[in-house]
Amino acid sequence: MMSKSTTYIANLLKTCIDKKSHISGKLIHAHILRLGLYDDTFLSNRLIELYNKCCQINTARHLFDQMPHKNIYSCNAMLSAYCKSSKLEDAYLLFDEMPERNEVSWNTLISALVRNGMAEKAVGVYRGMKWEGFVPTHFTLASVVSACGMMGDVKCGRGEHCVAIKIGLDENVYVGNALLSMYAKCGCIGDAVKAFEDLVEPNEVSFTAMMGVLAETDQVEEALKMFRLMYRIGISVDSISLSCVLGVFSRSGIGNTTGLLGNAHGRLIHGLIIRLGFEKDLHLGNSLLDMYAKTRDMESAEAVFNSLPQVSNVSWNVMIGGYGQDYQIGKALDYMQMMKEYGFEADEVTHVNMLAACIKSGNVETARKIFSNMACPSLVSWNAMLSGYFQDEKFKEAIKLFREMQFRNVQADRTTLAIILNSCAVLGLFEWGKAVHCTCIKGLNHTDIYVGSGLIGLYSKCNQADVAKSIFDRMPGRDIVCWNSMIAGLSLNSLDKEAFNLFKQMMGKGLYPTQFSYATILSSCAKSSSVPQGRQVHTQIVKDGVVNDVYVGSALIDMYSKCGEVHEARVFFDTMPFKNTITWNEMIHGYAQNGCGDKAIDLYNEMIQSGEKLDGITFLAVLTACSHSGLVDHGIAIFNSMQSEHGVEPLSDHYTCMIDTLGRAGRFHEIEVLVDKMPCKDDPIVWEVLLSSCRFHDNVTLARRAADALFSLDPKNSAPYVLLANMYSSLGRWDEVKYVRDMMSKKSIVKNPGYSWLEHKNEKQHMVNHYSYMEMPDSEAVCIL
């Protein structure tokens, strides 16, 4: 039994602990030593608790080591001190050395591991706890279920849910909240809703978590109903719960109907904030700014910003980011300048927001200037800049920046590597890509799904489909993006049968195809002219309920058209409930491919009547149809209407198509007029098409003009020399033939060899024809043929 003096001192220490009074506690500690009570275990435990509360961890440990008589409470107090200061290695060592443990010991360590993001270790300790015969408490289960959510391990989470039911803790509010959050993080929305419904007395945490779940599934209206219910049943509404519900509306989306709905509901919460007298709260003010910014209501955001009695870096950063998302780059720059003028230091978030603003508005050069002025850019900033270059198709600049990043010893992450691998793939820099692959292996990033997809894209685009497939086969956690990349890679390398088989394999594994999946495999079916396979994919599209998607529908039209089933393409086109410019273009192009010029023109006129916007591809498709069907006058009329009636400026492709149309009809006077006024005289393809037309109709004068233009624009291209020489040869003008061949000889220009693919015994043979020289690996095949 404690003496009165011991009880009095213990009470004084409790007061010091509550007030975090370190100095007073030290004085009491000195008094304890003077009284000779240093061996009193109870007082020592209180002192350890005091030093723990006052963040004096070393003093607490020194006292713990000096204690002559330790008990379970002493060890737990020291363990708690280590855990609260995140010294988990020391906590582990002490835990192992403890002569005995109780539920508090286990719970203290498990919760600390979860708080510090060490979910797997927390689950491991929990298993040890059960092995030693301890029954988990509601505190234990709440921590372990949270760990399952962090790991995304719904199987483990369901197991602990069963444990909770078995020991009667499934209706506990803390366990229930943890279950709700775990199911939400694992994407099991139905289970999360059920966990909420099973709660007997949900609290503000329960309602806040449930609102987050509803927001994740774009059920903003339901989230607002949940908040109203919370308010109606008398659960305390404070600045934290208000901030959380604003966060729900912030996540509701930008620039779509859900985002507009979120803004409307956010305004209602704004009114409640004013009514409850919280409008001066800085944290809540920043939440309001974020809600208005993310729903693209920058006028309201600016009004809130100006009304705040004080602002922080967060406030400025939200405004800069909001204007950037709203494409108002000038306003974002103004706020960054004002931020400095008001004495606020731009931080990493400021710079990243500003970089994102510039990149989103397509102003990559300004982004680069901001980036260059950063003293020590973080990896996030490097990645933002790399992403900007990639989106702006400045792939060489992206690679150059990556080299600078390596020079500065900045460690690349999966985002960096994925961007660079894709840049190398676009540019065809195979050796550079292989070097980046080595970097991935050294950094142990090569098995990451994002990096893996980049590697698959690189090797596929560099004609190394077998290497891409081996990388794909070794990837541990392949998601839909990886499968799409591999299917696209096989299709790109004309391995259409393999692409279709891989698509079926993906379906067999229970993965749902995306728009890109269907577009890729339908393109592959079109290339191999496999209508039966295309129809199989069409059937699956109907089953998946995406047949009304305009992009998938456009891919189906393209597939049927390229397979010669243009009537089937038109039937499907007519049944589509929603059409866009791409859909119309595909159908017109389908008619063009199949020589149905009249039908293409009729559909083009229907498109105009429908009010759908015409673009450059629309005109290219209908002009191609006119060219292939000999509808010259229709083609001229449509071409002349582009700029005057539809505001679409003709590009080199349109001029090329018109030259081809007029050339097929032998109307060279009109071609000359068109060539004289076209702005794209530096495009060699235009002149090649003109030269081919002249060759067909033996128009020597215009052919010479086209050839001279090509000699200047593309001096190493042998095609114009060969076409011109053949034309002179057909006319018996041998002096000119000799002149052209002498030019080729002087410039060391060699005719590109012709080649053919022959299939023999299920293998493709390559035959090259270079004037009189023929080369073929399998001469036996020629004999057999």
Automatic annotation (TrEMBL):
Which parts of the chain are PPR repeats? 71-101, 102-136, 203-237, 312-346, 378-412, 479-513, 580-614
Question: Superkingdom of the source?
Answer: Eukaryota
Which residue ranges does UniProt annotate as crossing the membrane? none
Q: Which UniProt keywords apply?
A: Repeat
> One short Pfam family name for this protein?
PPR
Classification via Gene3D superfamilies: Tetratricopeptide repeat domain
PROSITE patterns in the record: PPR (PS51375)
Q: Which GO terms describe its molecular function?
A: RNA binding
GO BP annotations of the record are: RNA modification
Specify the protein name: Pentacotripeptide-repeat region of PRORP domain-containing protein
* Source organism: Daucus carota subsp. sativus
